[in-house]
Amino acid sequence: GDKANFFLLEWTLQSLSQLAECICLKSQQIHHLFFELVELVVFCLSYIPHETLNKIQCVFKRNLYDIFNIEALECFYKLTLYNPLFSDIFSDSGLLEQLLGELRKQAKILRKAGNKEQGNGADCQKKLTSNMLKVVAALTLTSVKNTVFIRDSGMIPYIKIFLDEQQFRNSTLCILEQLSDINPEEYMSTAIGALCSSTEAELQLKRDLLQSVLKVLETPKGWNAFRTAGGFNGLLSIIVDMEGALNNKRCGVWAAVDHNSIMDLILLTLHTIAVAIHLNPVNGHFFKSTGHYEKMAEAIFQLGCFQEADVVDDSVECTHWRMFHEFVETVQISKVCWPLPLRDCIKLLDCLDQMARGTHVTMDFPDTSVAMADRCDVQLMEQDNRTNTSQSQHMGDHDFIGRIRSAASSVSSVANEYENRSMR
User: Which pTM was predicted?
Assistant: First the structure.
């Protein structure tokens, strides 16, 4: 239809803003259609309905309609990612401050509840909290000023609490990673502290935190921060805590954990240490001069696989193993059923060999000269080219923050690096 019809209607009756005041009383389906209309106005008509957005925020601040607030936050999230101008609009209108206040309350509730089961309405509240974190993450991605505001508001200790919930972790890490732009030392202290305080069974949390640390290590300002925040001691403590995790007969918490997940975490931890060492000579000297190599060797030995005494099949041909990497490659492609502890030993020794050679850090990192915020801006500009409704809806169907966080090297499958590494 004629786009002028909307403006004629809006400027005479202000129908959209009038709807915003009462739409909260309708069903969730009506909420969804209303916010699609708001997004259409922005994406297709290049018009910012300030009055409508103010009315929506007024309803949101009353905090009476959770379903409406969930849909409203989804809309704010998409608008913020579509155009960084909305980041200023939402922060100047007090939305960011309102969200931080609500998140502070929820963080206190989570900390007090611990691992206890939550009552009725917990799923709805989790979704609301998740969407609040997504909006805050989007606001920090598009504005350093907002990141500074979050830090100056004393919110970092409360934001950190949401790391424990898988549903909240992606957005929480995104917020913390933006903190590294203005204060890498505080980010590293927060991340390393969370790693050290996590339990033995929280392997996925450790993996997510290590991937986040790796992303910040892509930039020079993260190198010294990692060392001064006790990064080497923190990462070695992960391996120390995994004593006996690679034994043939595992016991305790490790008995119930998948073996590949254990090995993957160990290799990811060693990879992070290698990156910190080889990208910065000062870190390398510190690691060597303070005896961390010896500590690492002892921690790896205590994992358990080096203490097993399994015998290799006599039929295995070994006359052509003249170099260590030839032995590693033979084990990888061999059809012989090698004892599991031996295969673990080979993987770890290969990892240490690559660490010593400096080849362990040659993963597919993006250009480190491109800052994290710049990568975000590029993707935001791409989204700004959307010109029809179906494209704008498609934009909302994907987790933008997830794409931003996964734009760095995919190190979660680092164990497979040793299965597919090329010939030296």
Answer: 0.81
